[in-house]
Amino acid sequence: MFLGVVSLFADMTYEGARSITGPFLATLGASGAAVGIVAGLGELVGYGLRLASGALADRTRRYWAITISGYVLNLLAVPAMALAGRWEVAAFLIVAERTGKALRNPPRDVMLSYATLQVGRGWGFGLHEALDQIGAVLGPLFVAGVLYLNGDYRVAFAGLSISALLALGTLAAARISFPTPRDFEAKAGVEITDTSFPKAYWIYLGAVALVAAGFADFPLIAYHFQRTSLISADLIPLYYSLAMGIAGLSGLAFGRLFDRLGLSVLMAASLVAALFAPLVFFGGTGLALLGMVCWGIGLGAHESVMRAAVANFVPANRRGAAYGIFNAGYGLSWFLGSALIGILYDTSRLGLVAFSVAAQAASIPVLLLVYREVSRRGGHRTGE
């Protein structure tokens, strides 16, 4: 629960910031392609570094030290955005914020995988995602309020320092209360006898890559809303807040269903999420709102079921590396997809939508291959 509260305040901080980074970059002179590339580069660096962070966590077992250092960088980069005078400086801070998240996520997810074994990993990760998204709702709401009263992006970034400090304080309390999270799994009598990654894990990464490539980052969506005047500037954070609320609720529901039904839940979520692109980029105000609901459903599945499944594929003593590889693959695919989607936004909206839908839909048959591989091996480790 401590880590969930930390995530609530942390998400309030950086998701509040992310709700306006697209329009903020636009006010500093960035193009649509630049916004897409910056968003994708942030994800590439953020997820790519998780490969090293996960391996380091496995090697040193210093889960708390790595997690805390990552949170410090992740959270303090946000209020620093208030000082950015050029879009290149703002872009650097966006990448720095993602870098901090890269450092802390693999060891944090390993600790979550230990703590959630007895209650069900799908439910545990889903509950964590729900608390995440409470913060992700409150952050954009806070930003929307600041913009309504003041209209200054810089004041909004500075105000998010409050939630950043609350997150760091709660994190310190969690470290003092639970110094060795691995004891949760040790007490459950889990034996570690294998150190290899099964074939199903690698096929699963292929499905994850397709989902990530086709899933547009919100800064580009917000950029589209502002550029087309489809949504007024002070309402854009509210659309993001709605999507975050949907992500939290869907993540909780998908987590519970995953413990019972396995990867079929992720297949269904991917089909729904594929609808966001035509609704957001072709629709009017009402359809764009529905598109954000679909986008939130997809994000909820990514942050709960997609993460929970990794722990069920691999042995406990390789879990940090497994999460690192998983996140690196996800981030590389997100970067390549975001860069292409940003370029297509400036050249062909139809091409953008076609690519987004096709990539996410293509993950379904790959997930079916994962299910068959697990069944062939006589197990059901994707939803235990």
Give a description of the structure.
The chain is built from 17 helices and no strands. The chain is mainly alpha-helical and 384 residues long. It has a single domain, classed as Growth Hormone, Chain: A. The radius of gyration is 19 Å and the shape is globular.
Share of helical residues? over 70%
What number of domains? 1
CATH structural class: Mainly Alpha
Largest sheet: none
Any idea of the CATH topology?
A: Growth Hormone, Chain: A
Radius of gyration (CA) equals: 19 Å
How many distinct beta strands?
A: 0
Mean pLDDT: 84
Provide a concise account of the structure shown:
The protein is built from 17 helices and no strands. The protein has helices spanning 2-27, 32-60, 63-80, 87-115, 121-149, 153-159, 161-177, 183-187, 199-213, 218-227, 236-261, 264-273, 276-282, 285-303, 305-313, 319-347, 349-376.
Features:
Growth Hormone, Chain: A; 17 helices
How is this fold's topology laid out?
Layout: H1 2-27, H2 32-60, H3 63-80, H4 87-115, H5 121-149, H6 153-159, H7 161-177, H8 183-187, H9 199-213, H10 218-227, H11 236-261, H12 264-273, H13 276-282, H14 285-303, H15 305-313, H16 319-347, H17 349-376
Helix pairs in contact: 1-3, 1-4, 1-5, 1-7, 1-10, 2-4, 2-10, 2-16, 3-4, 3-7, 4-16, 5-6, 5-11, 5-15, 9-16, 9-17, 11-12, 11-14, 12-14, 12-17, 13-14, 13-17, 14-15, 16-17
